[in-house]
Amino acid sequence: MRxxxxxxxxxxxxxDSERLLAELVGHGAERTSPADAEVILVNTCGFIDAAxxxxxxxxxxxxRLKRDGSCRGVVAVGxxxxxxxxxxxxxxPEVDLLLGLRDLDRLVPELRARGLxxxxxxxxxxxxxxxxxxxxxxxxxxxxxxxCDHGCAFCAIPLWRGKHRSFELERLVAxxxxxxxxxxxxVNLVAQDxxxxxxxxxxxxxxxxxxxxLLRETSIPWFRLLYIYSAGLxxxxxxxxxxxxxxxxxxxxxxxxxxxxxxxxxxxxxxAATLRTKMAWLRDAIPGLTLRTTVLVGFPGETDVEFRELxxxxxxxxxxRLGAFAFSPQDGTRAAAMEExxxxxxxxxxxxxxxxxVQRAVSGERLAAEVGRERTAIVDGPxxxxxxxxxxxxxxxxxxxxxxxxxxxxxxxxDGATVLFGAEGLAPGSLVRVGIERAADFxxxxxxxxxxxxxxxxxxxxxPLAAAGRGLPVLGxxxxxxx
Length: 483
Known about the structure:
alpha/beta; 34% helix; five-stranded parallel beta sheet; single chain
C-alpha cells in the first residue's frame, strides 16, 4: 500500500502521526506523497475554527485525488473525528474510514478488511512503539502524558482526549533512546500540562524526576519543555534547569490572560499577581531564561478595560516569545454557552492584532540586543535564495549561501529562525557557535565561529528497534492513547 500521510495540528498530533506511520509501515505500507498514494491518511485537528477548516479542506482535497488519481481510499483520524464523527460522515462521503482517538487500534484491521492493505508484514518489521519521523529527524517531540484535568472554559481537549494519564517513566526513557538512535538532537517534551506528569503516583515523582532520567539515560544535547502551567513549576525543576546545560533555559508557560476577572471566567488557576511573582522568581533563578506564553483575546464578556489590563501586563513583563489567538467557541465547553456575551469578531481581530504588535516591539528590542553576542545554534537545513527570513534581514543583499537554524531561545516552528553563514556542508542537527550580526523582529543572522558537534549519521527510521532501549517496555498504539 502506498501511503500518503498528512499530519495537522499540534506537536502532540505529530507524535500520534509518527506512531501511526510506524504501525502501517510495519504492516507493509510504503510512504509516498499524497498525489501518488493509494491511501491518504489525514490526522485531523479540531482545536479552533481555523484548524477545523484546514482539516475539512484537506479531506476535500484528498477526496479530489481519490476521484482523479491513483488514490483508492481516504482515512480521517484524530481529534476532529473524535468529536464530530457523525457530522463528518454525512458531510464528507468521499472519506472511506473515520477513526477517533479511542479507535486507532482498529486502523490496520479496517484497512485490511477494505482491501487497502494486503501486503504481508515484513519479517523484522517496525518494533511496537517505534516512531517514524514525519518531518525532520533531528528535532523530535516526546509526548509524556495524554488528556487533561484542567477545566478551562474555552477548551474542548478534555472532551476529546479524556482525563490526564501519565505514561510510565521506563517507557518514555526507552522511547527517547529510540529517538536518539534515529538521529534526534533536540527533544521537546510536550503534554497538555507537563507539570501534571507523575501526579497519579503520589510518591513525589514529578516532571523533574522524568527529566533527570532522560538526561541520565541518553546523550541527547538539547531537551526543551513546552506547555507547562506556572502553577506547576516547582523548585526541583527550576534548580535542574538552572544547573543542567542540556535542559535548555526555556519555558513555555501559557497564561491565556492577565485580567483577574477574565481569568476567573476562563476557570484558570492563576491570577495576575501570582503570575508576576512566579515570572520574577523564574528569571532570577534561571540565568538567561527564555519565557514563552500564549494568550487568548475576545473571550466572552471581555471588556475594553479587561483587554487593556492584558496589554499593560504584556508590556510590563515582556515575554520573550508569545503566541496569540482570538476566541472561537468549541462545542461542549462552558464558554460556548456564553453566546449572549460573545465579543464581536471584528473587535476580537483588532485586539489580536494589537497584542501581536505589542509583542513585535518587545521581540524586536530583545533580539536587537543579541547583535554582537555569541550563541549556540542548531542547523535545521539550507536556506533557499527566496527564503523570507533572508529577505527580512538582508533584502536582496545576503552575503552568500546560508543555512537556517535556531539559537537555544528559539523553539522549532514557533519562534523565528537564525540565518547561519559559514555552515556550508553541515547536516541538519549539527550544533555550532554563531556570532550574531543582524536582527529583525523575530529572526537573527550570524556567522559560524565554531562547530561544536556535527549531526549524527545513524538515522535509520524504518530499521528494527535499535540497541538503545532494547528490553525496556514500549509504547504501542493501545498504550499511546492511555488505554
